[in-house]
Design a protein that fits this description.
The complex is a heterodimer of chains A (111) and B (117). Chain A is mostly beta strands and 111 residues long. Chain A is 0% helix and 54% strand. In chain A, strands 2, 4, 5, 9, 10 and 11 form a six-stranded mixed beta sheet that branches. In chain A, strands 1-3-8-7-6 form a five-stranded antiparallel beta sheet, with no helix packed on it. Chain B is globular, with a radius of gyration of 14 Å. The chains are: A mainly beta (111), B mainly beta (117).
Chain lengths: 111, 117
């Protein structure tokens, strides 16, 4: 039931792009993306609802493919501040508040 | 507007003692969630509470762990007779509970790092 994220880890140089994927075996209603820096709390990035929408937040955007039960997080022109572990969280139905988090993708941006 | 507050930030207990972790949700939030995170691992759901009600405790160990969210005051996660395996970071999150057909966004507190000696 836990969503699976890929890759598990990635190292980028500043300015490079990255894609993080989140897949589920169950039909999803919404996908939530968070970033967590070492020793800190997870910070909310964005939420996507079923319907294949795509959202953007500066140079970080995401898509949700309802048919594939998959969401992807796109980081473009990465900055050092993007380093951290990215988690996707999935909810199975509307109005149900429990979110199950994925295994995490560790992203390191180097100069 | 203060965010989610957790205390203590660090807690050291000896095996067999009790640990009490507190979480004050954001102002206006009525839903609280507790998660456990082991080093280099993901967030494991433990329990979801609304004021005076446990909504989903499917992630709580059957023994020694309990949680409450009283009408007044913070939510408490209580671990009795702690063992070394309980050492972890425990995060609390809150949401407004106004999502309706949607799933609320959860906002996380800074966590409590529990170390069991």
């Amino acid at each position: 039931q836990q969503p699976v994220q890929s890759p598990q880890a990635v190292i980028l140089r500043e300015g490079e792009d990255a894609v993080i994927n989140c897949s589920s075996s169950k039909a999803l209603y919404s996908v939530h993306w968070y970033r967590q820096k070492h020793g800190e709390a997870p910070v909310f990035l964005m939420i996507l609802l079923k319907g294949g929408e795509q959202k953007g937040h500066e140079k970080i955007s995401a898509s949700f493919n309802e048919k594939k039960q998959q969401s992807s997080l796109y980081l473009t022109a990465s900055q050092l501040s993007y380093s951290g572990t990215y988690f996707c969280g999935t909810a199975l139905r509307g109005g149900y508040q429990k979110v199950t988090f994925g295994t995490g993708t560790k992203l390191q941006v180097i100069p | 507007n203060a965010g989610v507050m957790q205390n203590p930030r660090h807690l050291v207990r000896r095996r067999g003692q009790e640990a009490r972790l507190r979480c004050s949700p954001m102002k206006g939030h009525s839903h609280v969630y507790w998660y456990r995170q082991l080093p280099e691992e993901g967030l494991k759901f433990m329990v979801y509470l609304q004021k005076e009600n446990i909504i989903d405790e499917s992630g709580m160990p059957k023994e020694r762990f309990s949680a409450e969210f009283p009408k007044e005051g913070p939510s408490i996660l209580r671990i009795q007779q702690v063992v070394r395996g309980d050492s972890a970071a425990y995060f609390c999150a809150s949401s407004p509970g106004t999502g309706g057909l949607l799933t609320d966004t959860q906002y996380f507190g800074p966590g409590t790092r529990l170390t069991v000696l």
